Amino acid sequence: DLNITGSVGIAMYPSDGSDLGTLMRCADAAMFRAKRHGRNSYRFFTKEMEVSTALHLQLINALRFAQDRSELAIHYQPQIDVHSGRLVGAEALLRWTNPGLGDVAPSVFIPAAEESGLILTIGEWVLRNAVRQAASWINKGLAPFVVAVNLSAVQFRQPDFPEMVSRILDEEGLPANCLELELTEGVAMHDPLAASAVLNDLYDRGIRIAIDDFGTGYSSLAYLKLLPVDLLKIDRSFVKDIETDKNDAAICASILALAHSLGLKVVAEGIETAAQRDFLHAHHCDYLQGYLFAKPEPSAQCLARLSRMQPAAQA
Ligand code: C2E
Ligand code: MG
Ligand code: MG
To answer: What is the reported pLDDT for 310?
Structure first.
């Protein structure tokens, strides 16, 4: 099926401009706003859009050169096994520092990278470097450990994506079961049949699949049952007020019960306090990740932490 929607940007003469070029530019900015807010709608041009469109273009332009100018880095945030207290893996989180713009937050530049298509090359760079890093840690004598890499919808929809992942694992020498790919619910559920074909292919190659930010989007439980998913990651927004908000506590407990009854493991994100950790421990959460244990940190610091927590290591 082809599903076509329209996104419309509207500029008014003469308040937004007095010539065709200006009016078209304003209408274009308004159309991009309509697209960014979910498409299939319209927006009238406002002055604020002009500023934000200019900033947005400046951001995308700078991002275009970020990889070649070595402005990108990967930080690693440890994941802890609740039962053994051991560090069992780490999530790779992309960082961008630009001389003019400073540190740009992933929540700002990842959407820009997705919109511009730059996420394809940047995402492959993240995947290759995270896989290489994990292989080098394992070669240093650290116990097998899992590196989790975030995926964008655009990457996931590339036709040869599973082959590319296998090729990178082969070339960098990392066993497939030491890689976990994190997808958000939206990516997995947008087109469940297509997603399930790709996920099954990845699963058959031995790669682990996690659903990120679980509970914040729309998940069909029927599809969740059919998808070859290993893990659910409970979003930080539910964990944050777990001690004070009865609803959040109930949501976390329910996600844990649901996941376990489907044979899935659960990672809780954004643990900042001992009380949050204790609640999740009491409800049999499998893995924990958050500032209470460690912030995302450069690879050298993460290696030092790994070596401390896994004494067999030779740093
Ligand atoms: P995410 O995958 O859900 O990552 C978790 C985010 O929560 C990270 O934000 C992490 O730094 C933050 N976090 C972890 N523990 C705590 C805590 O205890 N308290 C608080 N306040 N925050 C915590 P970050 O690094 O800013 O990344 C934001 C999002 O950007 C990620 O959310 C992910 O969706 C996306 N992202 C990051 N790197 C990549 C990448 O390489 N590729 C893609 N496609 N997306 C990425
Ligand atoms: Mg993630
Ligand atoms: Mg998340």
So the answer is: 67
